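OP here, attaching both records as promised.
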Amino acid sequence: MTVVRFWGMDQFAMMCAKMLLNKFDCFIVIEGNRGLGKSTLAYHLLTRVGRIMKRIAKETGGKDSLYKDYYSFKPYPQSKGKLKGNTKNILYQRDEVINFFDRWNASALADEGINVSFNRDFWNEDQKNLIKLINMNRDHCNLFIMCIPQFQVLDNQIKNLCKIRVTIARRGMAVIQTPNRTIYNKDKWDTANNERIEREWLKKGSGLPKYSKLNTFRGMMRFPALTKRDESIYTTIKVNERNTIKKDLGVGGEEKKEKELSEIAVERLKEGKIRNANILDGMAIANGSTPDSFKNIIRGKLKKEGIDHRLPQYYWEKQGKGKGKEGESGEMFG
């Protein structure tokens, strides 16, 4: 009977931190179907690595520590405020990813969801520049996590640059793989052999994948959903970036005026698509206002329409709709 190693999230994050402290970059690819939690896992890992570096900074001189600003992960709505341009941690656009690799000792998440939907040439256009930068700047010791639907669609050179491959098998469960150390074999992931192994277990029709038989398998890892606070922040970032990309691509026409976030919030409330007050709090941050003032604006708009302005009655969580709607709430991001 094969004993499968289960990694703790803190243990995995420490492994990444040690790699970075040893003057190596850490390029992780997380793959999986939409809605299984790729971005959720990436968010957890980046947060944990940031905490580890912060702890090391305290232990090595506090404010004077070399590590005090290393790998700081600040996933706040970035269209407003201080976090702009080359300091962003969550990336959706091609130029942001390319610019990231000029940074030093930084961390970032490239969330593919928006780009696959609206900009399908994200990883093809300027691909040579991207590969060149990753290779040239490996001594910059950056932590970069890329979320994609399927590892096999990547360019072979990018596959070989990947240090850790994480496959989301189901919500809350990940398969960890690393490349084999080869001298002559160009395919470090031994794709052909692993495909054969996978076909064998599929032929048996047991429905139970035997990941441990893959020769790149290194273990499994469980991960939880995000907290409500982190969930609301991430949802807001995703909405903002989607709107930005739509605008860049000219989707919807130039004559169409972009709606204010408060108007969008009112629409979503009436449609029953706002889970709870935390989502509105995240939208308030994105809008550059406080949660209380943002909610007052929404109440005013509801009053103007002549309908009930009590916000809790619109939350689907309060209406007993909290089960089975993870996709709408954004509890587990794909």
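Record two, same layout:
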Amino acid sequence: MITVTRPSLPPLQDLIPLLEQMWDTRILSNGGAFHQELESRLSEYLGLPHLSLFCNATIALMVAQKALSVSGDVITTPYSFAATAHAIAWSGNNPVFCDVDPETLCLDPRGIGPLLTESTSAIMPLHCYGRTCQVDAIREAAEKNQLSVIYDACHSFAVFDAGGSVLRYGDMAVVSFHATKVFNTFEGGLLVSSTAEQKQQVDRLKNFGFVSETEVSDIGINGKMSELNAAIGLLQLDYLQEAVKKRSLVDAYYREQLTGIRGLNMMAYEAAEQRNFAYFPIFITEEFPVSRDALYEHLKAHGIYARRYFYPLIPEYEAYQRPECTAMPELRNARLAAQQVLCLPLYPDLTQPELKGIVQFISNPGL
């Protein structure tokens, strides 16, 4: 069975000394030595000073809204994993779905204006598949309308442009360190703040709102990363560049072998960006011999588990069939992407025979 992704793991023997240290100190949570070291090393790697580790990215997205006093309507993308909108709804806010750009599949800033109401307080776009949103246009719309911008950057760890890490954009940005991501801590997340004061507030909110042993200033939540997850992260950092390089070779192989197949298109990326090769989406159009769903089933029948990321759209879920969850009338680009996109298996351990088999089944669907 070839899955769409497979977690990268450090050598097990490298973890043993760190586990022994945890057993010696009995410090398992609450910002221990591994937690502090991982924040420091990530800050150095990303070139960003105000980072907060979390137990997962969903809680981090919720804390970001709390820290920025977001309330009411939040303009967001319909083309994402459900957690993007879930974090808005769990915070007591209303997701308002804006169509995506047909090229990048990121939130289209041209759609923001018609969705604005007196209740709009924030924009939560997704850097989709590691493509970076139109950050300047989104910033202009936010500043003009006094809105906060929280980037769901869960796909964009280790993505850099000419100015540095793309996690620097917005008032805050959130990254996922889930097992399926390029960089994982088994479970985990990261919130990037703009200022030291913001980070201090975020760190209080993720620890129940405690300021001291006897003082609670905010109604916080438990969003802390454990020492075990932080230790895993420290080990993973040592192998990150190697993993990204191997991913890039898989990406290059797909591009070479799939180019020229009628009805199959591949996503283009900005040449100036340093990519993380997190996903490999293909677009199956009407000119392809079979439908996207037929190809999906064909691959699955041969033990190849590609994924229809993201299908269905979030506003099509039963959970979002309610009046307060509004959307643009058509969401034309998002709906087309949801019908066409198939993400192919991509992880460092994919072998050449496996890759060759995937390409053969796509090139000759045999249906």
